[in-house]
Amino acid sequence: MIGFIFSALLLGIALSMDSLAVSITCGLQRTMTKKRALVLAMSFAFFQGLFPLIGALIGDLAKDYIEAIDHWIAFGLLAVIGMKMFLEGYRYNMNNCVLYDFTKPSVLITLSIATSIDAFIIGIGFGLEYSLNEQFIIVGIIAICTFIFSLLGSFMGMKAYFFKPKLALIFGGSILFGLGLKILLEHLFV
Q1: Which pLDDT band holds residue 147 (cuts at 50, 70, 90)?
Q2: Which of 11, 55, 67, 171 stands the most exposed, by the fewest C-beta atoms within 10 Å?
Q3: What one-character DSSP code corresponds to residue 94?
Q4: What is the pLDDT of residues 76-95, one digit of tens each?
Q5: What is the CA 144 to chain-centroid distance, rounded?
Q6: Distance (Å, rounded) from C-alpha 114 to C-alpha 44?
């Protein structure tokens, strides 16, 4: 159980890196306040928790059809998203970042969805891999991690000293790839 919680925590941290990077960028704007940082973090956490849950439900429905290759699918999804995030981090340039008026609900929801697409795809993978109870635990951990990192990112942006978004994306991508590899190796060598 400790290994499961640790893996879920690593997954939650990795998936939170997109939200951290966007939150730092939003925090750099003069319109950011503590209340707005809280709203941003809650929105990111809600969608980051909702999307993998929807993905997991889809994964559950498909489980019987693809059980023999589910570990390859989970590895492929985690590896592709991890490499994508890693490359985004590698190419990240703060000077080319577009600052959005995140105070508009339409922009806030769009940012929340954009940072959660990865979580939907990952959810499909763990829908194939874990029981329903385990899925809810993972989703809860992802939402909590996202809330904490988004709030932290907003405050760091407001103070203008922060963990660089570039490093956050590289770190998150590396963790996702590593988790995918772990799932694959466990199935191949068990």
Answers
A1: very high
A2: 67
A3: G
A4: 877 877 787 778 777 766 55
A5: 11
A6: 10
Domain ranges of the chain: 2-188
Ranges of H-type helices in the chain: 2-27, 34-66, 70-91, 105-114, 117-129, 132-159, 165-188
Report yes or no on whether pTM surpasses 0.85. no
> Residue 104 to residues 39, 46, 111, 162, 187: CA-CA distances in angstroms?
12, 17, 11, 25, 46
CA distance 157 to 155: 5
Q: How many residues does the chain have?
A: 190
Residue 17: name the closest of 184, 177, 180 by CA.
Answer: 177
- Which residue bears the tokens 């941290």? 13
